[in-house]
Design a protein that fits this description.
- The chain is α/β, with parallel strands linked by helices and 229 residues long.
- Helix content is 41%, strand content 21%.
- A 5-stranded parallel beta sheet has the order 2-1-3-4-5, with helices on both faces.
- Strand 3 (48-52), helix 3 and strand 4 (75-79) form a beta-alpha-beta unit.
- The chain is elongated.
- It starts with a strand and ends with a strand.
Length: 229
């Protein structure tokens, strides 16, 4: 049985999500502001959180940050189409995915299944300060070191941060604007060129054949992801 927490200040949205996720394998919990969500994660064994961004008392981004201090449970943000920066900030705070309102019921169910599968089969996502590995690449965030097949790799701080973002979210595509916002901590201006240059340098250091990358892939028209070929 997977316990899923649904948090939104609009009761109609909570009820709609409960209908979309009506499944005998799910136990659905409710919360109506960020404070209630954090408390629920603290007190109950929750396997996934659906968390609205715009809420009273405590907004979703703040709640996301507090949840990450106590749990690695997957979190899917619920956002409006006009909240692009909030999506990016939420991913930076530790969210695993986001769904845009109005919801597509099939998309909601699919994304929930995907996050639960990743969480239960692969284990909880490592907390900040732990070691991330993918194939022969290992990043130790506590020591700020990277190795490739056991050999040390020297990265600039920005290259390290980009690698950490990608390796800690394997298979997830990040646009150049998202990468720039999360790594440089500022609104993107010339994000595409800046990120492309750093990705090229990073590939030169961790790829045997940068022109035919094993780890850092480009998804045409969308962005970059990290997975082992």
């Amino acid at each position: 049985m997977n316990r899923i927490l649904i948090c939104d200040d609009e009761k109609d949205i909570v009820n709609a999500l409960k209908i979309y996720l009506n499944d005998p394998d799910y136990e659905l919990l409710e919360a109506y502001d960020g404070e209630e969500a954090v408390e629920a994660v603290r007190e109950k064994d929750v396997q996934l959180v659906l968390l609205d961004i715009m809420m009273p008392k405590m907004d979703g981004i703040t709640a996301m940050t507090k949840i990450r201090q106590i749990s690695n449970v997957p979190v899917i943000l619920l956002t409006a189409k006009s909240e692009d920066m909030d999506k990016i900030l939420g991913l930076g705070a530790g969210a695993d995915d986001y769904i845009t309102k109005p919801f597509n019921p099939l998309e909601v169910a699919a994304r929930v299944r995907s996050q639960l599968r990743r969480y239960t089969r692969l284990g909880a996502r490592p907390a900040d300060g732990e070691v991330f590995t993918l194939g022969g690449v290992e990043l130790n965030d506590r020591k700020k070191t990277v190795t490739l097949d056991g050999e040390p790799v020297s990265l600039t701080p920005k290259e390290f941060d980009i690698l950490k973002l990608l390796i800690s979210n394997p298979g997830k595509v990040f646009s150049p604007r998202e990468i720039y916002t999360l790594v440089w901590k500022e609104r993107p201006l010339s994000a595409d060129n800046t990120v492309a240059v750093h990705i090229r340098h990073l590939r030169e250091k961790i790829e045997f054949d940068p022109a035919n990358p094993r780890y850092i892939k480009v998804v045409f028209g969308q962005g970059y992801l990290m997975e082992e070929r």
